[in-house]
Design goal:
Helix content: 10-25%
Number of helices: 1
Radius of gyration: 19 Å
Shape: elongated
Oligomer: single chain
Largest sheet: 5 strands, antiparallel
Structural class: alpha+beta
Number of strands: 5
Strand content: over 45%
Length: 98
Amino acid sequence: MKNKKYINSLLAACVLFSCFNGQAAELKRVYGKLSFGYGDWNKGFVNVDRGEVWKAVADFGAVFDRGEFASFYEMNVLNHPVEGRNHVTPISGTLSPN
């Protein structure tokens, strides 16, 4: 729940920033990718008793004439006695002054 509030506030800040600087940059292209994975760590030469892992990754970004914005979201669901989730949400951007 804490991550959801953080992501929502970050998206709101991006929208506000784009409203004030709407004339500053021209959108050239956008890109995105979704990928899903599965692994069973008990298969192989040694049984490590870790169970299974499910993974989902969403990658997206936008390229402007004066900069670039990129982000991805990664979620790992571990299926072993210490159940847990790992969420990663980095956001990066570059700005080239003209």
